[in-house]
Specification:
Two copies of one chain form a homodimer. Helix content of chain A is about 30%, strand content about 25%. With about 290 residues, chain A is an alpha/beta fold. In chain A, strands 5-4-3-2-1-14 form a six-stranded mixed β-sheet.
């Protein structure tokens, strides 16, 4: 029976890249992708900068490890895996474009290269190595549906979710390298998970976050990969703080569109008061208030 | 010693208004305000429509219960309490302005009437009784600092937090009548609390939510009043689902400005990519995508 529904199985691969060990890191991503394929995943999300590691000491180090898209070896390996497993893969990668570096996500599918996203909000020392993203928040038409990407600190900005949802994205894929935030209470989800849940709920959009674990040059990472449904509640995870693991969830991407309607009066995205926001946010931006 | 710090004590008064019983409801708010004053509160937040109740059966019923601002009896009573206790009060009220009704919050201080906020995002049958807010998200300069208001469904829209924070608000006061959301897991905070935490964290702004409890004409309410710090973590609450109670927290409003700086590179509000948002959100609004 043919239907308009879009059921998919999403896997987020929580792993531990090691800085500079590209061959080892790529082998680990490919092994975990194989595992996800065996679990029946249609879409796999890998962490931020998963081929190179994160804590660069110099721009030269980052530059040496970076690759052009889609010709670099890492993307070519993921393309081969996507074709072999007939799946879509979203992976964080250190991208080189001429003399510029970007903290990017590459999107590949069974039929080839689909596109790239470049992190719009650089965090900490990333400001020393990377250019801020210059592609906006593109929505990719993939074999499994409309997906957009965000990377780590991007989800601290609710505009990221909005830009994806308002362009029709059903699922936001988030390769990330979350770091601990101060004052985390033990009995509450990590703040990054709270931001993912709030963004999913407020936009009726699925959100799939693949984080890394481990320490790198003194920087600890957080794990807690999570897949959130369009209602804002977790479908899988949060994963552990400290183990490599795969989390898997089934979702019907069609629900992201259908269930934006909350009752006979309210639809989340249409209820936005754009008459007010546009004028006020523009005015405040011009006045420079904060 | 004179300092530039702004320490205050905030109380959110979780109560159960009864539909149509204005005299009884007002007496209850005034008794709880007295209790908050004894606890040393400088600022008190009361629930949405706390003087009238929420589930109107007809527009005529709502109209009869509504009052003009600031001349209505409810506001006058809160003004007297604010003067007597030398405190600021934010209270949800059914406002009548000519032939129009608004779901409003009134802000009064020791020296008199400060201003009003009108709910921008009407929920459910409110669309039958109330006009959508037409005052934007005003920020009030009060004796204790810069505060803004939002009411219930308003916090489903991250633009609400942004508009307040970008105009310099240090604290968002949220009179609310939260209703249960589907699929609430037992081991996670209610979604309204998650939205408050995410909004506080992403904007480095304190958020104080006073909810109601009980049932009204078949509609259950949620309690779970909460006061959230500028880091996004609860300072007090969540309160119970089903008991009238006061939650109290001390906060230094100066922290809302100081701690927006996350590290030597990042400041939450300045890191916004307004170059990209303004163009893209405007373009998407024109294209009508959702």
């Amino acid at each position: 029976m043919s239907t308009a529904e879009s059921p998919i199985r999403v896997a987020c691969l929580q792993m531990e890249p090691r800085i500079g060990e590209k061959t080892r890191n790529m082998a680990r991503t490919l092994a975990m992708i194989d595992e996800a394929a065996r679990a029946g995943a249609n879409l796999v999300v890998l962490p931020e900068l998963c081929n190179t590691g994160y804590v660069f000491e110099t721009r030269e180090e980052a530059f040496e490890l970076a690759e052009p898209l889609p010709d670099g070896l890492s993307t070519q390996a993921w393309l081969e895996a996507a074709a072999r497993h007939r799946m879509t893969i979203v992976a964080g990668i250190t991208e080189r474009d001429g003399e510029s570096l970007f903290n990017s996500a590459v999107v590949v599918g069974p039929k080839g290269y689909i596109g790239r996203y470049r992190k719009n909000h650089p965090w900490g020392a990333e400001n020393l190595f990377f250019e801020p993203g210059n592609l906006g928040v593109p929505v990719f038409q993939t074999p499994i549906g409309r997906i957009a990407c965000a990377i780590c600190y991007d989800i601290w900005f609710p505009e990221t979710f909005r830009l994806a949802a308002l362009q029709g994205a059903d699922l936001l894929c988030v390769p990330t390298n979350w770091v601990p935030m101060p004052q985390q209470p033990r009995d509450l989800p990590v703040m990054a998970n709270i931001l993912a849940m709030a963004g999913a709920h407020s936009n009726s959009m699925f959100v799939a976050c693949a984080d890394r674990i481990g320490h790198e040059r003194g920087q600890p990472f957080l794990g807690n990969s999570i897949i959130v449904g369009q209602t804002g509640w977790p479908l899988a995870g949060p994963a552990s703080f400290d183990r490599e693991e795969m989390i898997v969830a089934d979702m019907n991407l069609s629900d992201a569109r259908r269930k934006r309607t909350l009752n006979e009066f309210n639809q989340l995205l249409r209820d936005r008061r754009t008459d007010m926001y546009d004028e006020m946010l523009g005015a405040q931006a011009r006045r420079g208030w904060y």
